[in-house]
Protein 1
Amino acid sequence: MVNQKEYDLHAVVEMKKAHACQSNAWEIIRMGMDIRIKCQKCGQLVLMPRREFEKKMKKVLVKAEAAE
């Protein structure tokens, strides 16, 4: 399981599968029980449960402090 400290609000993460627009970089824009992420290429918003997000996330590309 991914450690919660590795990602935070406004961090850019890489998902295991690419989006339909062929990008797999997503920005975290809402955190709670559910996590809302925004595609960096096309702007599509996706809401998923935290457990599902942690399974599908591959790595953090840009930490939250650097993204702001």
Note: The longest helix spans residues 50-56.
Protein 2
Amino acid sequence: MTQNSSPQQPAEHAATHSVGDNAPINPPGLFPPIAEIGLGAPFRWLRQGARDMMTRAQESFFFGFCFAAMGLTVTKVFEHAYQYSSAMTSGFMLLGPFLAIGLYEISRQEARQERRSFSETLTVWRRNAGNIGIFSLVLMVIFLIWARASLVVFALFYTEEMPSLSGFLLQITDPKNLEFIMVYTCVGLFFALFVFAVSIVSIPMMLDRNQDAITAMLSSAMALAHNPGPCLLWAFLIAALTILGFATFHIGLIVAMPLVGHATWHAYRDLVRPTPLAPGQG
């Protein structure tokens, strides 16, 4: 079921059918209508995300600094074992939908014109802990499988000593290693697209509607199926911003991650419509 999306979403949308943080809004298995959006929607999400980021700059950049610190830590710890570093860095993107949960909540509060303590924002996962826990477990399992697959690809192409970080960066520019680059990229894209498909709107939906994890993940896949062009463009923009953040020695993550996190909330608001109330409700 689809509905046409208007360019701007009303401020009341986030609160529609809301009956309190602890009450389920969508019964398990009840899929909300998925909207059809235009190709330019991801750029609107980024503009709206930038507005939220500047409005709640102190909280947003706290998360940004945390992302940057995590990236720097991974690079430093695995500096001489890039087969692990690359897997961990890529896994950083796979786990991103869960790590950005506080940013979704900040944008949710802005949409509802609410202000809560920062401690409540940090522990917002408690609102729907069981289902968010299931979703994070799914992401963790995918991450572990990806880490193993990454090591297998490295082992197939590097039968001797694994390269260091500097050595690896030099080797990927060597045309002789084109086969490795293609295989590693294809395997990584498979995992990234799968995670993207099940997480486009999952956590925002679980936060906003107390939705169960399975329905939220399937709704994300439905959103991608209904809007392949805009959603794949959104995936490209997320990847580009994240890569830019890493390429600037992780400093860019301070801005890129809050921007993506806030924009993801607006993607959810555009893609998922309120579930119609049954006759006699409301």
Note: The two ends are 21 Å apart (CA to CA).
Protein 3
Amino acid sequence: MDLVRLRSLLEGVLITLYRRYTGAELPSVCERINLPPPPDDSSITKHERLSASLSACPDNRLPLVAEAVLNHEGLVAWQSMPLEDVLWVGRHYIEVPARTRRELAKELDLSDYLRYPDRFLAMLGSLWDLGENDFEVWGPHLGTLHDDIQRHVIRFPEDWSTEHLFEQLGAFDAVHPRFARFLEALVSPSTLPDESAQRRVVELANRHLAALGAELRQEGEEDGYPLFVLIQSRSGTTRRPRNLIFATLGKPDIRLSSALDNDIEVAERADEFLVYDRPVGKDGLLWRDLLAWWQETRKDSNATRASRSLYQRMANSLPEESKGQHNLFWIYHHIYQNQLHEVPALLPEIWLHWDPKTKQERQQLAMKNLRMDFLLLLPGNRRVVLEVDGTQHYTRDCGRTPDAARYAETMASDRDLKLRGYEVFRFGHGELRDRETAQPLLSSFFSRLLQRSPDNQP
């Protein structure tokens, strides 16, 4: 994320804020948008007080400030769009090149949208600057882009082609995340409350997106209509997890409370494992999502205290004898400690399979590797398994004798996971045994995996 650019944009927003609020209101404004308290100094201007507050704000908190400003301060489009672009580009996104955008526009028929002109204009105004707050000249006559679209697209639809509309919006040059959201909005039920029309646009878009390894895929419903999101279809699985059983201290004692709906419930020993049963969004499962669930289920409104207790509860599930697992878990949270809310949650001791019977009872039909060391749920439905391999993975007799059959069993399990859409990364226990040498290795690995540099580089 371009934090220098983000800070500069927030400096510009301060002009709006100091004009909008009185000096007495500034402390509450700063608290609302996650800025440090402004100086209590009547000898300086409101703008200087806000500037001092922003200067005191560390870089890693700027995204939270920008999010709060966008959510609470009612910025006009020319102010909000640059902030959104910096935030969105700093997260996972799918690239749709200009050629694909233009070819899609050439084939997109707007007639279905013209049956819902108010919805269509509202959608465009939520993503593009239609000049509704300006008094600029657009084209050969006075007016705004909003006025032009009403005239040349809605009232006289033969005037503008879809390609020309996209050109006027700036859709061909927009950053990738904004265009992705535009695609999703074009097939949203709030824009197009007609399922057959939605699916026609999805079918058209997916013909162009297929070459990129992307697609608009239905992910639930909204008001009875299908809801589509843009995903990377060449990696990950086709489904999102329903139940995550993790941080286990023993075999989970669970049962199906509704076999028809695949709903599970804890039968006994609920304190021995955690079950996250909330929907996982298109951004994957972030630490902030897991923490919100923990706070709600534990009824703890103190985020700092809840964060510590959640971390400790998960750490307690790690095998005492596996120093490598403990180091991996600690290092991940250490290197991302200042941006933990924005990174995927690292789930320890995760159950990928579950069988009420034991291996001895199942014999040859027993499922292998029921539980994995760690799981990350990343954007685009990516499921990443991390394993720390001790000698038990390739030896017997407490590490004294090589065991080819045991090693083959581990490799067979890997192949099965990969064929089901998981990404599997294995670390040797020896390379993670020492925390000082493991940190640069893991910092580099997670930086490449998440495409996000750690705050705490060794």
Note: Confidence is low (pLDDT under 50) at residues 134-141.
